[in-house]
Design brief:
Family: Belongs to the cytidine and deoxycytidylate deaminase family.
Protein name: dCMP deaminase
Strand content: 15-25%
CATH topology of one domain: Cytidine Deaminase, domain 2
Helix content: 25-40%
Distance between the termini: 30 Å
Number of helices: 4
Number of strands: 5
Organism: Candidatus Magasanikbacteria bacterium GW2011_GWC2_34_16
Keywords: Hydrolase, Metal-binding, Nucleotide biosynthesis, Zinc
CATH superfamily of one domain: Cytidine Deaminase, domain 2
Radius of gyration: 16 Å
CATH architecture of one domain: 3-Layer(aba) Sandwich
Order of helices and strands: HEEHEHEHE
Shape: globular
GO biological process, one term: pyrimidine nucleotide metabolic process
Largest sheet: 5 strands, mixed
Length: 155
């Protein structure tokens, strides 16, 4: 009798997908990705950080420092926002979001308003930054489950 091969976990699968979609980002300093999954483990949306549709990557600045209008922060849509915007005309109510970075406060509001029930994140490197402290506060008050992902290969 043939024994079935071992497969990767759903967490591993969706986080790999988040990393893959992040590679579409043209941001020279941070490539972030997010995948939204329903309760049947079906992907309903994916996104990466970048400028809004129709704006070429060389039309706006990618700088991290300087006046607000001369940095990427005034213009970039984050991965989590784009995953909601790209939700294939399906509801994200009750879904799980897998993201390569812990979401900022703006993305937290978007995820809350769109009914996300759980966030699985890999990196929390900005956890001391005010926008991410505010994000954690919002998400916890909204009752959204937060879980840091650890790769199956790292276990």
């Amino acid at each position: 009798m043939i024994t079935p091969r071992q497969s990767i976990s759903w967490d591993e699968c969706f986080m790999r997908m988040a990393h893959l979609i992040a590679e579409r980002s043209k941001d020279p300093s941070t490539q972030a990705g997010a995948v939204i999954v329903n309760n049947k483990n079906v992907v309903v949306g994916m996104g990466y950080n970048g400028f809004p549709r129709g704006i070429e990557s060389d039309q706006l600045p990618w700088e991290r420092e300087g006046s607000f209008l001369d940095t990427k922060y005034a213009y970039v849509c984050h991965a989590e926002e784009n995953a909601v915007y790209n939700a294939n005309s399906r509801s994200t109510e009750g879904c799980v979001t897998y993201c390569t970075l812990f979401p900022c406060n703006e993305c937290a509001k978007t995820l809350i308003q769109n009914g996300i029930k759980e966030i699985v994140y890999e990196s929390d490197k900005y956890n001391e930054v005010d926008a991410f402290i505010a994000s954690r506060r919002l998400l916890e008050l909204a009752g959204i489950k937060l879980r840091q992902y650890i790769s199956d290969t790292a276990k």
